[in-house]
User: What shape does this take?
Amino acid sequence: LNILCEGLRKKYNGKTIVFITPLYRVSDKNQNENTLQDYRDAIVKIAGKKFGFYIINGLDLGLDKNTTNLKELLPDGLHPTPPAHEIIGKNLAEQLMLL
Assistant: This one.
């Protein structure tokens, strides 16, 4: 992540750089037992605090465990359907307008 951020800063110096933390998904751990929250925390710490890039919390984009009809929006627990993309896109656009 440090290497990526350094490269982005060098290549896009003076431009707005935005990171979106991982979206909600049903399975929260990978094979190394890292959770999505571990990755969210690393992105905030490194991209946000160390490099000063804007961070949008993927959990604020309209899908979480309390979402009505979640099984229709994330049928396999990971990949959003077209209606889910519409929800995510609308919320993402609203977040970007605040920058």
Q: What stands out?
A: The chain has four helices and two strands. The mean pLDDT is 94. The first helix runs from residue 2 to 11. Strands lie at 18-20, 54-56.
